[in-house]
Each structure stands twice: as C-alpha cells, then as structure tokens.
Amino acid sequence: MPTSKRDQIIFGLMMCTGMVVVMMTFNLWHSGLLGKMSPLEILLQFILCFVIAFVVESFIVGPVARKIAFSLPFDKSNKILSVLAMSFFMVIGMVLIMSLYGMVSAYLADQLNGASVLRKYLHTIARNFSLALPYQLIILGPLVRYVFGKFIKDNGPVMPVVNKSV
Question: Which Pfam family is an annotated match for this chain, by its short name (predicted)?
Fold first, then answer.
C-alpha cells in the first residue's frame, strides 16, 4: 500500500507501534513481569524494543520478506494474496529476530533460570508466532491499512507546482 518512502516510513511506524505494544505486553505478562515493572521501566522497554523492531523491520526483515513474497508464483495483481504473503513473511522474520532480542534481554536480566537457551528460544518463537500471525492478519494489518488509506495516504504535505516554462 505505501508507494513513497514517506508512506513506507509512516506505515512501518504504525505497524511497529501496534505490534510492539501487543507483543511486548504479552511477553511481559507471560514472563510475570508486567505487574512487577514500574510504568517508567515499561516505557523504557517499549522505546528500546520499538527502535530495534523498526530498524529490523525497515532494513532487514522488510526487504527480505518483500523479495521472498513477490518471488512466489502467484498473481501479483491479487491484492489479498499479496498482502497475505507479505504479512506472513514479515511475521516470520520479525518473530525470529525479536524473539532473539527477548532471549538476550532475559539472559541479561538473569531470567532464564538455567533453562536450555535453544529450547527456550524455540518455545518463545512458537508462542510469539501463535499470537503475532493472527493478530497481524485479522486485527492490526486491516486496521493499519484502513487508517493509513483513509488518513495518511496522499494527505502529505502539498508541494507547490513550479512552472519551469516562465
């Protein structure tokens, strides 16, 4: 849906915000930290997680997901199939990388409690994927595309037309 660089950035910011809020809340709740952290600690975690997610989405996962999704043999003019393919590969990439970020955070906070790192990582991927994919496909994706299309797309700053023939 985004066609310009400006549109891609705004769309990415909207998607990242929605995904980070829900996934971070889910993971803090699941690890029993939601009630133990102060609002300031949660805000700082959100900012750090958001920045990492936006950079990863913009420079790593987004380009790779786009390349994979649009190399598949399907009718690219079918907008629904294109959105589903892109969303699917975006979720896979983001879950793999952001779950790794979560594991590093848990390790640094000494919250792994001697568990197998690989087993914990695989469990975290499965848990996050089971929420992220349906949330992206059913709730956030359609909501962001609607808001973006209704209020953002083509409503950017108007550039004055300069008549060069004068």
Answer: DUF2798
